[in-house]
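A reminder from the course coordinator: this example appears on the midterm review sheet, so study it carefully.

Given structure:
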């Protein structure tokens, strides 16, 4: 997949199918639009035109790196990840003819029914329909994807994460909520307790669930392991920053400096301070058993 972040650098010579949208969560609704763009005869020349970050300014439910990886895994050939400031002042019809048709060489456009474009968000699906007819290209407008009768949106997912309703967030996303990040050094207290952990900094601007312990899965190379993840400041032993700290009972090895993908599955308990390290150790063992029941014992 080729990623272009500057509108001036877009100059394609092959026609493509293009998915349009903010795609700030890559949830089930967003993926429906992207899957439409991947249909024949453009399966090998499908692209996504989106924005870096969320134009709404809300916390992210997927990191930029994970967003790019997921789109590449889906088979997207071209990713135009533009800063909103590059396009916000371009009139809608000018954006259509000069960018979508002239630069991207779009032969099919795919979007949701609430898609807006151009200066002041003046362009809508009605205008896009007329312009596509004039350009003699295909337009696919997808209806909202619903979950239990409600529209799936990044706003709903953020609310679910904030409330600790991780299974709901995962259902709306169509995949486990989480992030990829480098393993960093912590205070090594977990190792001293007999529970060596993987420490990862929460990505800047990322949605943070309630502090506490979660059943999780963590990917080491090509294998997924059951994990017990604490998100917070570790009140019993102390931490000067918010971290994600995961114990992987079935793995032993040096992971420092490696980039691992963490997936949260279910909230187990709030973060709290224990009276002793022995009490903390007993609780960690209990939480590991709970995580195993949630993820499926021995499942990889």
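Designed residues:
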């Amino acid at each position: 997949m080729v990623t272009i972040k500057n509108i001036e650098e877009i100059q394609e010579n092959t026609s493509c199918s293009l998915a349009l949208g903010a795609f700030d969560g890559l949830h089930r609704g967003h993926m429906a639009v992207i899957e439409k763009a991947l249909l024949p005869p453009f399966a090998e020349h499908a692209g996504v035109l989106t924005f870096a970050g969320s134009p709404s300014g809300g916390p992210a439910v997927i990191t930029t790196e994970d967003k790019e990886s997921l789109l590449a895994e889906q088979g997207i050939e071209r990713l135009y990840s533009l800063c909103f400031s590059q396009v916000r002042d371009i009139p809608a019809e000018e954006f259509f003819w000069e960018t979508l048709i002239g630069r991207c060489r779009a032969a099919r456009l795919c979007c949701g029914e609430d898609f807006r474009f151009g200066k002041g968000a003046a362009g809508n699906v009605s205008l896009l329909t007329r312009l596509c007819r004039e350009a003699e290209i295909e337009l696919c407008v997808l209806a909202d994807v619903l979950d239990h009768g409600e529209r799936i949106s990044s706003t709903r997912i953020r609310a679910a994460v904030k409330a600790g309703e991780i299974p709901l967030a995962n259902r709306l996303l169509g995949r486990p909520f989480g992030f990829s990040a480098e393993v960093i050094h912590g205070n090594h207290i977990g190792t001293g307790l007999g529970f060596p952990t993987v420490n990862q900094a929460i990505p800047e601007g990322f949605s943070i669930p309630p502090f506490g312990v979660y059943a999780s899965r963590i990917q080491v190379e090509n294998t997924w392991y059951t994990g017990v993840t604490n998100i917070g400041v570790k009140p019993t032993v102390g931490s000067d920053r918010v971290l994600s700290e995961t114990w992987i009972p079935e793995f032993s090895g040096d992971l420092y400096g490696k980039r691992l993908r963490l997936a949260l599955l279910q909230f187990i308990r709030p973060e709290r301070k224990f009276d002793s390290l022995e009490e903390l150790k007993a609780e960690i063992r209990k939480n590991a058993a709970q995580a195993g029941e949630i993820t499926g014992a021995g499942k990889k």
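Residues 25 and 154 are 6 Å apart (CA to CA). The mean pLDDT is 91.
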